[in-house]
């Protein structure tokens, strides 16, 4: 059968993930030091795992409300109120989802009509552009530059807005650059969103992982923004819970209602044992989360220092667990650099081009890897760069 005629056009047109391509090269190799996968190297703290086990032991093996357990939604509203300084009503403004991934998909499908434009800043997380296309929207990227710490500048955003723009997607701290927005830039961005009546979809999954004592500010907390913002967050990164697949969206009720309509038919609800674990994370997980954050902070400082010593210019990212060194001085493309580094030294890092065209000339190194491996990886990288 000719399956090419059976697959939906908008899905057939989606390119393969550059990360997936690269990891096919890594698979099957022995002894690779991986700075590749954006996943905590910590196991989920024991008391959180125990909450999931206890949930099973008690025989809690059922569906929950489509919105998620009310106890969890209350805890989320409390946590978001304290951490982000935005107040949401647990009964109708919070939706528990299967990771932030599902929440992105639901939000875009709930908001877009065919051809509506969605602006996002690039380099960015690999799912954004395909998720927009799968929701029949038009993906409009705004490139960010190393000179600005890869942050989105209001002037650049203003130039990309058209009468068809419906949504702005933000991600601070950013995957893959670790960049954060200044308060001044966030205010400028908010002003534009109000002026042009845009909805903001803000993915703040790395918001606890801010360094140098700086507190994260959400665009949802700025004046006039809560009513036009969908705040997405989850447990994968800060609480080291990727496998639990749990996230949430906080937004005005009509938007949550629209997202819920899709969620109730496509997913029904998030798994109950993961919801119970997430409740434990919010109630008692902060000390463990801070311990992990302090460790990432140390590793970030180590990696930025070593990369600059090696001659790969690297800005100091304000958050997440990625550094994004500039490899242009080597004359290699990011794909060639990553492939040759893997072949020569068995160190895996992701080519910047996997995160959009503006990522070309850079390499994403994830430092959710033990410090000893980071040390070895940097020594190997130094030796490799010395051979070029
Ligand atoms: N958003 C960003 C920016 C990410 O980097 C990731 C995972 O790497 C996700 C969302 C997916 O998160 P989740 O595990 O909650 O689906």
Automatic annotation (TrEMBL):
Entry's EC annotation: 2.6.1.-
Cofactor(s), by name: pyridoxal 5'-phosphate
Domain of life: Bacteria
Sequence intervals crossing the membrane: none
Cross-referenced InterPro entries: Aminotransferase_I/II_large, AspAT/PAT-like, NHTrfase_class1_PyrdxlP-BS, PyrdxlP-dep_Trfase, PyrdxlP-dep_Trfase_major, PyrdxlP-dep_Trfase_small
Domain named Aminotransferase class I/classII large: residues: 31-379
Pfam families associated with the record: Aminotran_1_2 (PF00155)
A molecular function (GO) term: transaminase activity
Keyword Metal-binding belongs to the record: no
Keyword field: Aminotransferase, Pyridoxal phosphate, Transferase
Main enzyme class: transferase
Keyword Transmembrane: no
Secretion signal span: none
GO annotation terms (biological process): amino acid metabolic process
Gene3D superfamilies (UniProt xref): Aspartate Aminotransferase, domain 1 (3.90.1150.10), Type I PLP-dependent aspartate aminotransferase-like (Major domain) (3.40.640.10)
Family to which the UniProt record says this protein belongs: Belongs to the class-I pyridoxal-phosphate-dependent aminotransferase family.
Matching PANTHER family: ASPARTATE AMINOTRANSFERASE, ASPARTATE AMINOTRANSFERASE-RELATED
Protein name: Aminotransferase
UniProt organism field: Luteolibacter ambystomatis
């Amino acid at each position: 059968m000719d399956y090419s005629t059976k697959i939906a056009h908008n899905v057939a047109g989606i390119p393969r993930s550059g990360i997936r391509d690269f990891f096919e090269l890594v698979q099957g190799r022995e002894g690779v030091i991986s700075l590749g996968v954006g996943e905590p190297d910590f196991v989920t703290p024991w008391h959180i795992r125990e909450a999931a086990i206890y949930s099973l032991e008690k025989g809690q093996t059922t569906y929950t409300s489509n919105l998620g357990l009310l106890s969890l939604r209350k805890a989320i509203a409390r946590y978001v109120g304290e951490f982000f300084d935005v107040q949401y009503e647990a009964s109708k403004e919070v939706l528990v989802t299967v990771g932030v991934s599902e929440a992105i998909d639901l939000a875009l499908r709930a908001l877009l009509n065919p051809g509506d434009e969605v602006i996002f800043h690039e380099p960015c997380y690999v799912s954004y552009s395909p998720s927009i296309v799968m929701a029949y929207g038009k993906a409009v990227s705004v490139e960010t530059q190393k000179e600005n710490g890869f942050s989105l500048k209001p002037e650049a955003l203003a130039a990309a807005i058209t009468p068809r723009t419906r949504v702005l997607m933000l991600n601070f701290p950013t995957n893959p650059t670790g960049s954060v927005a200044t308060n001044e830039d966030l205010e400028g961005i908010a002003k534009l969103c109000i002026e042009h009546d845009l909805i903001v979809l803000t993915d703040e999954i790395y918001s606890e992982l801010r360094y140098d004592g700086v507190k994260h500010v959400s665009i949802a907390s700025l004046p006039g923004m809560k009513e036009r913002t969908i705040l997405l967050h989850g447990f994968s990164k800060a609480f080291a819970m990727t496998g639990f697949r749990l996230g949430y969206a906080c937004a005005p009720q009509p938007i949550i209602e629209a997202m819920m309509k899709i969620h109730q038919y496509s997913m029904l609800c998030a798994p109950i044992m993961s919801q119970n674990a997430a409740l434990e994370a919010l109630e008692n997980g902060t000390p463990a989360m801070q311990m992990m954050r302090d460790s990432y902070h140390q590793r970030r400082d180590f990696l930025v220092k070593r990369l600059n010593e090696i001659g790969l210019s690297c800005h100091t990212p304000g958050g997440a667990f990625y550094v994004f060194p500039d490899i242009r001085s080597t004359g290699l493309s990011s794909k060639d650099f990553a492939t040759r580094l893997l072949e020569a030294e068995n160190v895996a890092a992701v080519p910047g081009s996997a995160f959009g065209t503006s990522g070309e000339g850079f390499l994403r190194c994830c430092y959710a890897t033990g410090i000893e491996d980071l040390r070895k990886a940097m020594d190997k990288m130094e030796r490799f760069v010395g051979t070029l």
